[in-house]
Specification:
Layout: E1 13-18, H1 24-37, E2 41-46, H2 72-87, E3 93-98, H3 105-117, E4 121-127, H4 134-141, E5 146-149
Parallel strand pairs: 1-4, 1-5, 2-3, 3-4
Helix pairs in contact: 2-3
Length: 150
């Protein structure tokens, strides 16, 4: 996992797929803890069914109360700027997402933007058993992240 989250090019992270209860979240948490111990900045996002109906609902904590955007593109770039500001810019940054299969389409677009337009790396857990959102599938089909079945 450390290789996938390094800054050496190639895939920009990983998504761990598996059934409920197999330990995906624990594996992500252990990988993230090891990265943090090495000085990597980490931002956790925990996707939920309730936040799925709200654009960027799972990322609401990175936006400021007064942030306002009139177009989805503006909102995406604002959220990416806020993520980069949280990273501090001086050390590697990993976005850890639990239950990525529950992300709304705008949040998935933000993840895609983060891995293609910034140095941010991602590590995600996602449940199997139902088709994942198309945007999530595109992340590994386009070889932006590696899919790991657990």
């Amino acid at each position: 996992m450390a290789r996938l989250l390094s800054l050496d090019g190639g895939a920009r992270g990983a998504v761990l797929f598996g059934e409920a209860g197999v330990g995906k979240t624990r594996l992500v948490a252990e990988a993230v803890a090891a990265l943090e111990a090495g000085g990597t900045a980490v931002e956790w996002v925990r996707a939920t069914e309730a936040a799925r109906e709200i654009p960027l609902g799972s990322f609401a904590h990175v936006l400021d109360r007064g942030d306002d955007a009139h177009h989805t593109d503006d909102l995406l770039h604002l959220a990416l700027s806020r993520l980069q500001a949280r990273a501090g810019g001086e050390r590697p940054f990993v976005l850890a997402i639990d239950d990525a299969h529950l992300l709304d389409p705008v949040s998935i677009a933000l993840v895609h933007l983060a891995v293609t337009q910034s140095p941010i790396r991602v590590v995600m857990s996602a449940r199997t058993g139902r088709p994942p959102p198309d945007g999530l599938v595109a992340l590994w089909k386009d070889e932006l992240v590696e899919r790991i079945d657990v």
